[in-house]
Design goal:
Helices cover about 65% and strands about 5% of the residues. By secondary structure, it is mainly α. Helix 17 (about 335-345) runs parallel beside helix 19 (about 370-380) and helix 37 (about 680-690) packs across helix 39.
């Protein structure tokens, strides 16, 4: 086989000379073999090659897990022949070869074999037989491992062009980082990333964009899968998920699943529709898509698909899928299906259905820990504190949960209830990680890190909490349950309290990237509130906190609505202080009662009552809450003419702030000035102190720059006057 001229791929599409060599080989009727390590850009190179020779692509995807299944790699192509009548009857390989050849000739496509080293033997023989029949139409992608004997011999006989994509040089790494960040990095940083990435473009991109996962932790196809899912709408993601469970699926079954419009929207882009059957057309293997979606999401989709196949499955493919899924999940199908159903209800916010299912499942005995978790979590979301703790602790002590992931989820619910109850010592003790091997170790550890951060946040140990949450997000890169979004929202709050706007923006971006439709809407409102608060604003964050509370309450999440309104109260929002006293939003426990006491005192501007609330928080160990309530009490006392009493509390406030790693908040910023400022004066002062220009502050607040100047003058006059007394 001839060796082509090679050059490193810096960005997609590849360099012109490398692409030109491959395109020339195709034009001359030679097959092309693209080799290189995972992440070097082989798949994107193949796409660019197809564009350069103006041909569509028919994908054959080798999968290491399917090498024992004859014709597994080419089966989708066989079923997708545009002219079924042209396919002869006979041995399976002959039929597959004829169907695939017919499809390629009819469409004028390139046959791109991704993962050529992982083809099953029958698929490898089919592809090998097509190489002489379709000169210049076969492109194989390989990581350098040995190909099957038949495929290797056919490529060698056809004098295949080899394109060996090498690692990046240091200069190319620096240029790629510059493309991603829109500015050239310094040499030291470029060298650090280049060494860590070993010249691999995917790892360079990953490290340069501040991703935390180590190089080599995911395949290139997993990154492509992430891109496919990120660009898809929610119905399209469900469509791809169903096809990852079973493919092809008939139009009537997908219509019964409510995805007819999604099929129309995705046709020709994500799926193909042929003869009433729908198949994936995005070039990423269905098992990789399934891995990106996550186990819990696939369980939910499988449950729905089984029901739809029972009702509307009529095609041979439907009947085959129904037979294959008849015993799903293996072992104890009835209990397993019910467990998946109730978890799906929980994730989709069908809380009443989930609660009913959980109690039914607990009564049957099997999968009781899953049922206990579901019931405890729902009760916690509904604002209860006592029963969730009893249920979760009993499930952890009376038996062994079905899996470490179930145990991790139970502990998260238990610790969250402990914190809400103000039992921080118990929360810290309950936050230990599960023991034993886990099928999803990263997600289990992510749950554990997130859980361990909750009592640290409550105590005010924000630096340590931030480290734990950073670790949780690093480990939860594949999460599709909403835990990563929730952890990112907590991290945004932590970084906001520590006054780190850059870290807040990173956390907010991560929350958006990992949001789950039904679960994460309120968390995203909170994230936006924290981002604006970190720029010194207080009016806009209050509005966003109330929006988060409204969204959470509409979904039945009383506890999350209460937490959002608690943030608004801490920001001095008297409208939220009135809402949080609504009996429909009451949550159990001494911490919730103290929040309500703070809200009532804030509405009435009762400085003494605010100070008593601060003392109540301090007794519970909630130092950050205590600092905000104490600062609000000092502000109220000064407004009532009791500046001496307010000033006497300054030392106590300083101690609380120091105990919380030097946090800042709107109330604390005003309290330490010693002056009586209006909300607008305090907001303008904070925004300019954090670097906002008068024009930028005016645009953010909807006022003129001259008004900004006037507010600043008045604020400084008041502060100077307070300091002279």
């Amino acid at each position: 086989m001839a060796t082509g001229v090679t050059s490193p791929e810096r960005t997609a599409p590849p360099r012109a000379r490398l692409l030109s060599d491959a395109a020339g080989a195709v034009t001359r009727g030679r097959p092309v073999v693209i080799i290189g390590t995972a992440g070097i850009g082989k798949t994107e190179f193949a796409r660019a090659l197809a564009r350069s020779v103006r041909r569509p692509i028919v994908w054959v995807l080798g999968d290491e897990k399917s090498t024992a299944a004859p014709l597994a790699a080419v089966s989708a192509c066989v079923e997708s022949s545009p002219d079924p009548g042209s396919v002869p009857s006979g041995p399976a390989e002959t039929m597959a070869s004829a169907a695939l050849c017919s499809r390629i000739e009819a469409t004028g496509a390139l046959l791109v074999v991704d993962g050529a080293e992982h083809l099953d033997d029958a698929s490898a023989r089919v592809v090998a037989g097509l190489i002489p029949r379709l000169p210049g139409r076969v492109v194989a992608l390989s990581n350098g491992q040995a190909l099957g004997p038949a495929l290797y011999a056919a490529l060698r006989t056809a004098d295949a062009q080899i394109v060996d994509v090498p690692p990046l040089t240091l200069d190319e790494t620096a240029a790629l980082i510059g493309d991603l960040r829109h500015h050239r990095p310094d040499l030291a940083e470029a060298m650090r990333i280049h060494r860590a990435a070993d010249g691999n473009p995917r790892h360079v991109r990953h490290l340069a964009s501040s991703a935390q996962r180590p190089p080599g932790s995911a395949t290139e196809l997993e990154y492509l899968a992430a891109a496919v899912l990120a660009a898809a709408t929610a119905p399209e993601r469900d469509l791809l998920g169903f096809l990852a469970v079973a493919s092809p699926l008939s139009l009537p079954v997908l219509g019964a699943l409510g995805l007819a419009d999604a099929v129309d929207a995705a046709a020709g882009r994500l799926v193909t529709v042929d003869g009433g059957l729908v198949r994936s057309a995005h070039g990423v293997p269905d098992p990789v898509i399934a891995g990106r979606l996550g186990v819990l999401h696939l369980l939910r989709l499988t449950e729905r698909l089984v029901d739809a196949l029972d009702r509307d499955g009529r095609s041979p493919a439907d009947l085959l899928h129904r037979a294959r899924l008849a015993d799903w999940p293996a072992g104890e199908p009835a209990e397993g299906r019910l467990a998946a159903t109730l978890i799906g209800d929980l994730l989709d916010d069908r809380l009443a259905d989930a609660l009913t299912g959980a109690r039914s499942l607990r009564a049957t005995g099997p999968a009781s820990a899953i049922a206990a978790y579901t019931e405890a979590e729902i009760l916690r979301r509904l604002g209860e504190g006592r029963r969730p703790r009893i249920l979760a602790r009993a499930a952890l002590t009376d038996g062994t949960p079905e899996s470490p992931l179930t145990e991790a989820a139970l502990r998260h619910t238990l610790v969250a209830a402990d914190v809400a109850f103000g039992s921080l010592d118990e929360a810290a003790a309950d936050a230990r990680p599960p023991s034993g091997p886990a099928p999803q170790p990263d997600l289990v550890l992510a749950y554990s890190c997130f859980t361990a951060a909750l009592p640290e946040i409550a105590r005010g140990a924000f630096a340590e909490a931030g480290r734990r949450l950073d670790a949780a997000l690093e480990l939860a890169a594949e999460d599709r349950t909403g835990i990563a979004c929730a952890a990112a929202a907590e991290l945004a709050a932590v970084r906001m309290m520590l006054g780190d706007p850059t870290a807040v923006e990173r956390a907010v971006a991560r929350a958006r990237a990992s949001a789950v439709d039904a679960v994460s809407a309120a968390a995203l409102h909170l994230c936006e509130a924290f981002a604006t608060a970190c720029r010194g604003q207080s009016t806009r964050p209050r509005q966003l906190f109330r929006s988060a509370a409204r969204t959470a309450r509409n979904g039945g999440h009383v506890a999350d609505a209460f937490i959002a309104l608690t943030w608004a109260v801490r920001f001095g929002d008297r409208a939220a202080a009135e809402l949080i006293t609504d009996p429909a939003l009451r949550c159990e426990g001494p911490a919730a009662r103290t929040v309500v006491a703070q809200a009532v005192a804030l509405r009435s501007r009762d400085g003494d009552a605010l100070i008593r609330a601060a003392e109540g928080y301090a007794r519970l160990g909630l130092s950050a809450h205590a600092a905000d309530a104490l600062a609000q009490g000092m502000i109220a006392l000064r407004a009532a003419g009791h500046s001496v009493a307010a000033n006497a509390l300054r030392g106590r406030l300083d101690d609380l702030v120091a105990a919380c790693d030097g946090i800042t908040s709107p109330a604390i910023r005003v309290a330490v000035t010693g002056a009586v400022l209006t909300d607008r004066e305090a907001e303008v002062l904070a925004m300019t102190a954090l670097g906002g220009t008068r024009r930028a502050v005016g645009e953010a607040l909807g006022i003129l720059p001259t008004s900004v100047s006037a507010y600043l003058v008045r604020a400084h006059q008041k502060i100077d006057a307070a300091g002279s007394r």
